[in-house]
Amino acid sequence: MTPRMTPLLAFDAVGKSFTLHLRGGTVLPVVSGATLAVHPGECVVLGGASGAGKSSLLKMAYGNYRCATGAIRVHDGTRVVDLATAAPREILGLRRTTLAYVSQFLRVIPRVGARAVVEAAGIEGGLTPEAARTRAGDLLARLDLPERLWALPPATFSGGEQQRVNIARGLIAARPILLMDEPTASLDARNRAVVVDLIAEKRAAGVGILGIFHDADIRAAVATRIVDVSTFRGARAA
Amino acid sequence: MTEPLLTVDGLTKSYGRRRACDRIGFTLDPGEVLAVVGESGSGKSTLLSLVAGEVAADAGSVAYRMRDGATRDLAALSAAERRALMRTDWGFVRQDSTQGLRMAVSAGGNVGERLMGIGERHYGRIRATALDWLARVEIAPDRIDDPPTRFSGGMRQRLQIARNLVTAPRLVLMDEPTSGLDVSVQARLLDTIRGLVAELGLAVIIVTHDLAVARLLSHRVLVMRGGRVIETGLTDQVLDDPQAAYTQLLVSSVLAA
Amino acid sequence: MNPQVTDTDTGGTGYNFAYLDEGTKRMIRRAILKAIAIPGYQVPFAAREMPMPYGWGTGGVQLTAAILGASDVLKVIDQGADDTTNAVSIRRFFTATAGVATTTRTARATVIQTRHRIPEAPLAEGQVLVYQVPIPEPLRFLEPRETETRELHALGEYGLMHVKLYEDIARHGHIATTYAYPVEVAGRYVMDPSPTPKFDNPKMDDCPALQLFGAGREKRIYAIPPYTRVRSLDFEDHPFRVQSFAHPCALCGAQGVYLDEVVLDDAGGRMFVCSDTDHCETRRADGHTGEAA
Q1: Inter-chain touch B121–C157, beta carbons under 8 Å
Q2: Which residues contact C152 (CB under 8 A, 6 or more apart)?
Q3: Which residues pair with A100 in a beta bridge?
Q4: Summary mean pLDDT of chain C
Q5: Among candidates C13, C171, C164, which has minimal Cα distance to C97?
């Protein structure tokens, strides 16, 4: 990609540790000096052993975990916001306009049908209700979720079915930054291929992706760059 | 930046030597949902009563941006103005439905009361509006003439919501609206609240001891203990990455929320 | 005690004129003046124990005692009749303690104490109608807290009163309240007109006589000054209506008056006669007859 371009997402010497007050104040270091950038059209994959802090970095990028030191700069199209210091309302605003997130598990909303869950995410991301409905149907069809399930709440679905709803929900709106945490873990080969295609389409549309993909084949298929998170462990902020 | 809908500053209330609320401050934007969580005795319900002006604060202020755009200190409103505000632009859904409903009055009368309170004098219109609202909170139309004494706990809470929302308020206070209900009933009620809040763009302060309720409904959360705010921030941030020892205890004491 | 107040014994009865001492009468008169100044507003007063049980008109009796003068002519009715126990007892009470003249004729009376009716004959300037009131608070049915009802009155928040009417229509298809039908007085206070039939509500409006209401147990006095606008509450699509009767009075043939049902025998025989006995008798004396006469 073009390194001179303003990155969509940039970690600058980010440090994070957990203080476990219930265990006598034990400090659990997660990462320090984490520095990386995601540009439009890139798919940066976080590598490194389990427990290296990959998920934590992703959660910090979404504002879900706090950032203890350093800065996480998000370009929202007009200006740059540092998640480390942003007010809750600014982070909520970025989630509406800029940051999309596909988590490992679908957090289920009671009684809302699968298609409606996806639609609602599209409307929140700025689509018209009609466009959201059409796109939700398209995505669920591409992800091979049987149409008879669309009206049912995903709480009763299998793990793989839930995950496909989750992916559709994360991808429906056109947000410039996409964060993905093991989106393919519980999917079969056919659906993994669909996800690989969807990621390629997002990249082609200029979306910057930061993700975690354990499966080597998928990683090879989607990554434009792999950042080894273990190099951030114990490193001093530059 | 737009001015907040509600600005709470330094709210303090003591009962004897016990500080029920100690210098509490926050702002609330239109359409924003704030959860106040904590154990019983943390001061969260007192905070709600102070905000609603039902209990006089020892110190501090509550300011509200009125429909005309002017922000007013609620303590400076006349009793008539304050009551008019409470029954039109504010709602209050109580934990104990017998406190929030008129138990001797039919469901339709409960929903219609606020309309009659603002001068509606056409029975047919009142009834049509009541039917519409009962439908929105999923109460069957043939229950319109039943008093809430014949309703289940979940239905009573949904009736309270209809009764409060009928005048299109911009701010709704909710005090443990789902406590004491069966889990399945809770889920249904939460979904009703979630849908209406999003659809109507309501600002909500919801007091709850249930972190799952806070997670499902709120944008931001305020963790209280002993009358003080222990921690505040984005709901998922506070629940997933709690900083204060007390919040960590609170989060770790419940099943996955 | 105020030294200017001197009681006047009514020749040998041992009681002050009209039973109450002059200090009490002054206190009640002050409450009456305030009630007249604020039409429809319930003025608290220090109701006395009377030599009759609550529910027998202790509020009305205290009002009558406070306004009665030696030259007054008193009429007392209960459900429109002058000859029922309650009416007879109260009339005797004032004959004994005040020695005033009494009458059954509406037109001749200067003070009329009533339970449950307003006379059919139009009232005139200078007359005073005293109502016996059991529960003065019209909002009590829906709001038992006195602190709250006072605030509702103070702020003129009467939506709740319409909730009661709404409940009527929802339950019965029409406003089924036929007694104690709430009215708005002089465009301000909502008032319970005591358990008079709503048939009598229109008579309160723009009435030339002074109307006083006394609740003894609840210790409240309220008033409607002469020629005051009294409006019965209603809905646009369910306007206030009075009862109408299918038949005229069986005794005097009167129409457009309030009738009582009188059961004649065990075989279901019945007739409808004027509730206002004086009105009926006056008409019959003038030669009017109904089908049973």
Answers
A1: no
A2: C139, C143, C158, C160
A3: A178
A4: 93
A5: C13
> pLDDT tens digit string along A24-40?
989 988 999 999 999 99
Q: Which of C151, C157, C237 sits opposite B122 (nearest CB)?
A: C237
Mean of per-residue pLDDT scores for chain B: 94
Note whether B122 contacts A: Cβ–Cβ < 8 A.
Answer: no
Residues of chain C numbered 31-50 and touching chain B (CB < 8 Å): none
Picking from B108, B121, B124, the nearest residue to C162 by CB comes out as B121
Contact A22 B245 (CB under 8 A): yes
Distance CA C130, CA A146 (A): 80
Question: For residue A78, what are its two tokens?
Answer: 């007009």
Domain boundary among A174, A192, A221: A174
- β-pair partners for A31: A16
Nearest residue on chain B to C175, judged by CA atoms? Answer: B123
Ordered DSSP codes for B58-104: SEEEEEEE-TTS-EEEGGGS-HHHHHHHHHHTEEEE-SSHHHHS-TT
For residue C14, report the phi and psi dihedrals to the nearest 5 degrees: 85, -5
Tens of pLDDT along C151-174?
Answer: 999 999 999 999 999 999 999 998
Q: Does B202 touch chain A (CB under 8 A)?
A: no
pLDDT tens, C34-63? 999 999 999 999 999 999 888 889 999 999
In the stretch 219-238 of chain B, residues with CB closer than 8 A to chain A read 219-220, 233-234, 236-237
Mutate one of B237, B239, B243 to test the A interface: name it (highest A CB count within 10 A).
B237
Tell me the chain C residues in contact with residue B121 when contact means C-beta distances shorter than 8 Å. Answer: 162, 234-236
Q: Which domain holds residue A204?
A: 1-98+175-238
Is residue A225 domain-shared with residue A124, that is, in the same domain? no
Instruction: Give the whole-angstrom CA distance, residue C139 versus residue B117.
Output: 14
Residue A223 and residue A209 share a domain: yes
Share above pLDDT 90 across residues of chain A, in percent, rounded to a whole number: 73
* Mean pLDDT along residues B106-128: 96
SS3 A99: strand
A170 and A116: one domain? yes
Cβ contacts from B onto C, under 8 A: 58
Please identify, among A134, A149, A174, the residue that sits at the C-terminal boundary of a domain.
A174
The answer to whether the Cβ–Cβ distance between B241 and A63 falls below 8 Å is no
CB-based contact C144:C209 (threshold 8 Å): no
Question: What is the value of pTM for the model shown?
Answer: 0.88
The SS3 assignment for B194 reads helix
**Into how many domains does chain A fold?**
2
Whether residues A39 and A87 share a domain: the answer is yes
User: ipTM of this predicted complex?
Assistant: 0.90
**Residue C155: closest C-alpha in chain B:** B80
Question: How far is B79 from chain C, CA to nearest CA, in Å?
Answer: 8
